[in-house]
Design brief:
The protein has 455 residues and is mainly β. It has a domain of 154 residues: Neuraminidase. It has two helices and 36 strands. The strands form eight sheets. Strands 12, 13, 14, 15, 16, 17, 18 and 19 form an eight-stranded antiparallel β-sheet that branches. Strands 3-2-1-36 form a four-stranded antiparallel β-sheet. The longest helix is centred in the first third of the chain and has 4 residues.
């Protein structure tokens, strides 16, 4: 098995869903060899119920395997895993025996799983329509090809986060009351940390920072957010910020949700409507760093953040203003500044940020009012247009991942570029070669719905 693989799910409305690994064989960096460089190996089809449209969702990586939720006529929608071969792509466990669904949610990657002691812990019976789980936490075995139930609970649980040697999770006892729990991975080791936190809606961030559990809530009866942390004790579970408002670009929740969480130099940075904030997990170590995009009258449609060359970069995009802005920050007020901005005469689609070495890659408007791929040298602060991309369709509703371009570095000078398609959930796949500054469309990559994983 090669060290690196591209993992894709193909969304094909007519054909059965196909699961592929793009095996990486580094023969040449020249685009002329790109087709030979990537061997497409079909490892599974999924056909579910009365329809042939059964997309797998929610990828996560653990212990040299990819895990995902997928539908099958014999088992319903359950957790599957793969090492990248057809022979070892298997159902992990039928959590809800028979054809009934045991795993419905598409958030396995970001929310409803975590790793502890080289085992994947995940939530079964997650209802995709409610954002909450239904009562069971499972643990995979040593090989990752089986799993067993380790915890039962009541309430509406909203994700798993590993902090040191424990797993933290949040649970609602009713629509407006939140609890903080922790466990060592066993039923007997489950402890209620904090009760009766008043909240609205769902949780918009959960993570680990400096040995603490950090999470963001929407404050009860307000349109504001508040960041909390927990050291695993009742008295040590408390808010880090006052009530602050979001800029509209967060992928979770409503416009009040905060965005662009990123860990840098042992601090967690995040963006509100007006500012860049940071925290070390304590109230004393939480502060406003600098002003960024002012979203008072113009909310942000899309945003991203990345660390390149030991500095943070924050991207903001407004569909209505046809404007993109990128800020650079070293984590200080004086070291935070606008380094790139452009307002276009007509719509162009943005992208997630990508990098190689000291270069930042993104899409922006060009002189022809189209969309081009740009690189930004983080040393010289010079932005260079690389080439124009295929024309985009103006979306009626801008939907983050589906409406933005995604750029993944593969190896050397090769990048996988996923462009928005003519329909909301359809995309086209391209290979960009920075060395020759050429890009080629590969139909086999069309409708790919996935991420780059190293196996």
């Amino acid at each position: 098995m090669p060290l690196d693989s591209l993992f894709f799910i193909f969304l094909q409305p007519i054909k059965p869903i196909t699961l592929y690994f793009m095996k990486k064989i580094i023969l040449s960096l020249s685009l002329i060899f790109a087709v030979n460089t990537y061997a497409q190996i079909q490892i599974s089809d999924f056909v579910y119920g009365d329809t042939s449209y059964s997309p797998p969702f929610g990828y996560t990586q653990s212990n040299n395997r990819i895990y995902f939720s997928a539908g099958d006529e014999s088992f319903g929608r359950e957790l599957w895993s793969s090492d990248g071969t057809a022979e070892d792509t298997n159902l992990v466990v039928d959590a809800n025996p028979g054809t009934a669904d045991g795993f419905l949610d598409s958030s396995l990657l970001t929310t409803f799983s975590t790793e502890l002691n080289n085992r994947l812990y995940y939530v079964a019976n997650v209802d995709n329509s409610s954002q909450y789980s239904g009562g069971e936490i499972w643990k995979t075995n040593e090989t990752g090809t089986g799993a067993s139930i380790v915890l039962n609970y009541t309430g509406k649980m909203m994700g798993l986060t590993t902090v040191n040697n424990e797993i933290f999770f949040l649970s609602k006892t009713d629509d407006y009351t939140l609890q903080v729990w922790k466990t060592d991975g066993t039923q007997s080791g489950m402890v209620l940390v904090k009760d009766n936190i008043a909240v609205y809606n769902g949780i918009t961030f959960q993570g680990a920072l400096n040995g603490k559990f950090v999470f963001t809530i929407q404050v009860y009866q307000t349109n504001n957010s508040q960041v909390w942390s927990s050291d695993g004790t009742t008295d040590g579970t408390l808010p880090l910020t006052g009530e602050i408002d979001g800029n509209g670009s967060a992928t979770e929740g409503t416009n009040n949700a905060l965005s662009q969480y990123i860990t840098y130099n042992s601090n967690l940075y995040f963006v509100s409507r007006y500012h860049l904030h940071k925290t070390d997990g304590t109230a004393a170590g939480t502060s406003v760093v600098a002003d960024l995009w002012n979203a008072q009258t113009n909310l942000v449609d899309f945003s991203d953040a990345i660390v390149v060359n030991n500095k943070m970069y924050f991207l903001f995009y407004s569909k209505s203003d046809k404007k993109i802005s990128i800020y650079e920050s070293d984590g200080t007020n004086g070291g935070t500044s606008l380094v790139y901005t452009r307002t276009a005469p007509q719509y162009f689609y943005p992208s997630y940020l990508a990098n190689l070495g000291n270069k930042l890659f993104f899409t922006s408007s060009n002189e022809n009012s189209g969309t081009s791929l740009f690189s930004f040298n983080t040393d010289s602060h010079i932005a260079s247009e690389k080439l124009e991309l295929a024309a985009g369709i103006v979306p009626g509703v801008f939907l983050g991942y589906y409406s933005a371009c995604k750029i993944d570095h593969i190896t050397g000078s090769l990048y996988y570029v996923s462009l928005p398609g003519t329909a909301t959930f359809l995309r086209s796949g391209w290979i960009y070669n920075e060395a020759s500054n050429t890009i080629s469309h590969f139909e086999v990559l069309d409708y790919a719905y996935g991420l780059l994983y190293n196996l």
